[in-house]
Structure formats: structure tokens, C-alpha cells
Amino acid sequence: MEKARLFIALDAEDFVVDSLIEATNKLRKVIPGVRWGNESTMHLTLKFFGTIPLLEVREIDKAVKKSIKGMESFSFGAEGVGGFPRLEKPRVLWAGIGKGKENIEYLAERLEKNLQEIYGAEIKKFVPHITLGRIKRRIVLNKEQLHELKQFESKKFGVTTVDRVSLYSSDLTPKGPVYSKVDSWSLI
User: Fold this and answer.
1) pLDDT at res. 95
2) How many angstroms separate the Cα of 181 from the Cα of each of 82, 87, 129, 165, 171?
3) What is the pTM of this model?
4) Residue 122 and residue 48: Cα distance in Å, rounded?
5) pLDDT, tens digit, 9 for 90 and up, residues 99-136
6) Cα-Cα end-to-end distance for the chain
7) What are phi and psi of 103, to 5 degrees?
């Protein structure tokens, strides 16, 4: 049985991605050991499935259509920088969401509800964000690194119009993941 590593995401517009890349280029000079994202990895993940049988794409299609039914396009603003689990000892560095956060949370909640029958309930709370970089080994950021990150705390990277939801496959390579769009669904 054929399988793929899949996730559902919202795409950010090019000028927003460019602004995020500009920030990561500044941060990469002071925070080593981070696998920084690139233009193709800057998106907002709504649901990560992991590796699943391709036959399940039909069920995903039904759940997404049900989730977005009657939903109009909206905008979201990428702003600020943070870290999971916390900024001082991050595993993930991210850009947060300001404007439109409620719309994204609502969509993610509907998706979760409609996918729950297939995949069960998500254990961790959904936090809308765009991943800027991942850190494999545990690090503690020093004062200089925290200072650089905090310069982006209130940075507004731009506003994206969301008119579709996309399903992506993720192929892991030594140079990082390679994403391919599998399907997309338009909002009204």
C-alpha cells in the first residue's frame, strides 16, 4: 500500500514569505544550529497527519470540504517571533499570527472535529504559527541571541489573503523536507 507524509496548510503570500526569510537571514548570523526554513517551507500548518496510506486522501477530502463549507476567504497577519516550548530553550522558532487568528483557530477546530473520526482527537492545543526554523539539539539562547530575537517581537511581516486550503506531501531529504501540493480547496 502506497503511503505519504501529509499535512493541511494555509499558504502565505510571496511578500510575506520574503519578509520572513529576511528575518531568518538576520537571525541565522547569531543563532547557529538551527535548520532555518526556506521559501517552500513558510506556511501555516493546520493539521499534520504524518505518514498515512494514500487511500485516506479521500476521507481527508470529505473532511476538508465539510470544514470549509460556507467559509469565506479571510486574511491573517504574520507578526512577532517566538519559540516552542519557550523562547529561552526553543526546539522551534516561529512567527506568530495577529490579525485573522480567530478565523484560523475556527478553521482548525472545524478540521479537527471532522477528522476526529479518522485520526482521533489532537492532544496538544493548536497554536497558529509559521515555523521559521527547527533546532535538533537542546540549546539555551544567550543574551545576545535573545536580544536579536526580541527585536522581532512586534515585527509585522505582512498580511496574507487566504482563499484556499491545501494538502501537501512532505518528503524528508538530508537537506530538509521537500513539499509538494497534492490538492487544494477554495473558500468562497
Assistant:
1) 98
2) 27, 31, 20, 11, 12
3) 0.93
4) 10
5) 999 999 999 999 999 998 777 767 778 999 999 999 98
6) 35
7) -65, -40
Q: Report d(CA 170, CA 111) in Å as an integer.
A: 20
* Cα-based distances in Å from 16 to 22, 62, 145: 10, 30, 23
- Within 10 angstroms of residue 78's Cβ, the number of other Cβ atoms is 31
Q: Does domain 3-177 have CATH number 3.40.220.10?
A: no
Catalytic residues: 43, 129
CB-neighbour burial class of residue 5 (10 A; exposed 0-12, middle 13-18, buried 19+)? middle
Which alpha helices (DSSP H) does the chain contain, by range?
14-28, 57-68, 101-119, 143-150
Task: List CB contacts of 65: < 8 A, sequence separation 6 or more.
Answer: 185
Dihedral angle sign, alpha carbons of residues 3, 180, 77, 97 = positive
Closest residue by Cα to residue 162 from 23, 68, 47: 68
- The Cβ of residue 117 has, within 10 Å, a number of other Cβ atoms equal to 9
| H-run or E-run covering 75 | strand 74-84
Bridge partners, residue 77, by sequence: 159
